[in-house]
Amino acid sequence: MIASPAVTTPTDRDAASSPEPYEPAPRLVADHVSVHFGRRLALQDVSVGFAGGETVSLVGPNGAGKSTLLKVLAGMLAPSHGRVARHPLPDGRTPAVSYVPQRTGVDWTFPVDVLDVVLMGAPVGTPLARLRPFNHALRRRALEVLDLVGMPHHARTQIGELSGGQQQRVFLARALMQDGDILLLDEPFTGVDVPTQDLLLTLLRGQCELGKTVIYATHDLDQARRAAGRVLLVNGAIIADGAPRDVLTPATLRATFGGQVVIFDEQSAHGASDRRADRVR
């Protein structure tokens, strides 16, 4: 079972004057989740919780179960065992989930333009959202979101005509249009240019500062260090969970990836960044 954050009750005057920092209860919880595809075990006994206002990276090799875990958390895939729960927000609402799939899993030949893709992200409860994409308020909001991701002049461009980085920006815009309390992204940095990576980092940090829960999958250790305050190493199960400096160590990376892994250690000196590569054997 998931352990709830400890609550310390002061027993003396000194303790009462220096209370422990408040730790919020998890917003999203996976409780002993396992997933089988036929006879293949994709995830085994995963128990983990995610709070509001944190950015978490799921790091592991291809085929490690990162995408499977995201789909289970999103409610798109039922676990074979265990359960996933979304705990109510302070206002009593159940947290809404926004999901950004891998680019490789999308049919980019489908004849739809950028604005329509973003409008598809309108919350289901929005009146006539699905039937009237020309609704003026929705259109205005969609254009605002496109401006936020640096795509204001591509509203009527066919999605298949865009570059990989532009397509990723559009799918992030659709997720922002949903305005979910939990944002799940599957390999958002893969196959995109550096400006798009930097934009994604900025937007994800902004969502975290708004109190959203941001969880993304990656096999890029550098992106895990740069973007997340918490890292989960995944390879069929949770190998390690914690701050990047504590989790991205030679021992845990060897257990997760096997073979050889290059770790980049960035240290700032006089405003400059030196990158040192350590090879895990």
UniProtKB/TrEMBL annotation:
GO molecular function: ATP binding; ATP hydrolysis activity
This protein's record includes keyword Ubl conjugation: no
Residue ranges with Polar residues bias: 1-10
A Pfam family assignment: ABC_tran
Keyword Transport: yes
Sequence segments annotated as region (Disordered): 1-25
Alphabetized InterPro entries for the sequence: AAA+_ATPase, ABC_transporter-like_ATP-bd, ABC_transporter-like_CS, Metal_Ion_Import_ABC, P-loop_NTPase
Keywords: ATP-binding, Nucleotide-binding, Transport
Boundaries of every ABC transporter domain copy: 28-261
PANTHER family in alphabetical order: IRON TRANSPORT SYSTEM ATP-BINDING PROTEIN HI_0361-RELATED, METAL TRANSPORT SYSTEM ATP-BINDING PROTEIN TM_0124-RELATED
Family as reported in the entry's similarity comment: Belongs to the ABC transporter superfamily.
Name of this protein: Manganese ABC transporter, ATP-binding protein SitB
Organism: uncultured Thermomicrobiales bacterium
Taxonomic path: Bacteria, Pseudomonadati, Thermomicrobiota, Thermomicrobia, Thermomicrobiales
